[in-house]
Fold this sequence. Notes:
The complex is a heterodimer of chains A (about 270) and B (about 240). Chain A is mainly α and about 270 residues long. Chain A has helices spanning about 20-30, 45-55, 60-70, 80-95, 105-145, 145-175, 180-185, 185-210, 225-245, 250-270; strands at about 5, 10-15.
Amino acid sequence: MERVEVQNGVGTAPAGVPAGVLARVFLRSLVLQASFNRRGMQNLGFAYAMWPALQVLYPDRAARTRAAARHLAFFNTHPYLASAILGGVIFHEERVARGEESPDVVENFKRALQGPFAAVGDSFFWLSLRPSAGILAALLSPWIGLWAVALFLVLYNVPHVAFRLVLFVDGYRRGDRVVERVARAALPKWGARLRGVSAACGGAAAVVAAFLITGPGLPVEGEPWLAVSCAASALVFLASWALLARGGTLLAAGLAIGLGLVLALLGAGW
Amino acid sequence: MIGVWPLLLAGVIAGLAAVERKALLQAQVSRPIVVAPLVGWALGDPLAGLYVGAPLELLWIGAANLGAALPPHDTAAAAAVAAATVGAGNVELPGAVAALAVLAFGPAALLGRKLEGVGERANERLVAHAAAALGEGLPQRAFRLHLRGLWRPFAATGALVIVAGGLVGPALGWVQDRLPLVALAGLEIGWGLLWAVGGASAVRAARLPRGLALAAGGAAVAAGLWTSAELLGWVGVTG
Lengths: 270, 239
């Protein structure tokens, strides 16, 4: 590996971080949140992920420890988009180690990107892609069985893993310009479309409920019961929609089970 | 009655899923639609796990860890409900037992959230120790501390699932044997209606101004497909 003299008198540093070390940083980023905490959030995880790169970049023990301590500052972003920041931080740390940049550049880079990337990642992955993949798989599960599990994992993880890998490499290669790659992906636009799919599937789930409670083994059958089951499903859907605005998931579930008991009692006396 | 080894395997799977939920990878193996069939598989009935996991996926579909806000612990609750349902043994109306299991373990989602908060506060001490170790020039020791945060969710969720499958499940089987048929039918209907709760949860999670209109459209399409399938004699449910 090519080594260059650094300007700050701490020995020699390599011109770049080897691919194997980059791979180790990426793998360590998968446990970014192992010590997630209220005060520093992902800070120790970030320093843990960076450590193999810092070992290469700072041959001097004291300089390496100082660099690791810098990464214990508050850090919190979306765990997948953190890979872009990690790649970009290695890009900058190489320059810091060579004396071409001040450590403040690294700090400013992390500080500038963590908030916006958290917002973009939370909105797309947690609130759009995951719910849409989940509801599609759940809706199909009565018909495709255990394939629904595979369907969910593929629908979710193909974009997830691709984003993590591509952004890490792009962050490392292009530094601050990784922002352009994230912007080009147009995640807010795709997120809005996926949320539309989730909402439409939500209505379909209410129909599945009506379908399931007209099945065999229940006290009454026939057209009157079909009308009752459709009405019950619509009622539970609308009541839950109102209750969930106040976070009452378990209350809504209790309501559904309670209504089921009432319907069975009514059906028994039908 | 489920044997010790399948119970331990289910506990390990659920524990790993709880770790995966936030601390490791986050490939969503921890979601109810995945973890419940996995726990069911460990206990000998993956389809029963899926039967439980699909509506629970919808119930907690909008649960997301945004910043410092902690969502209900859907993984612990879904794994425990699946373990208890399978642990109840072969029953005629599985939805009835699943509904009882939801009543028993639904609150585990809230308890899990509380414990997660406790774990995060404990992690603050780990970070303080790590900073001190770095100050002493011992970075390897500092970074070993990072991985110590993994054991708490593993142990808590694993233990919950073992209790659910080994103790609560058989108890639910005993209860359902003694319930009148009308109560069992009511619980079965209630279980089916959980899908409607889940549908509403999905519309809420979408956070769109026209969410209800889209849901109405989705319901119309699904009802049309259902009617067509019935006319063609295609209606059938796996498991």
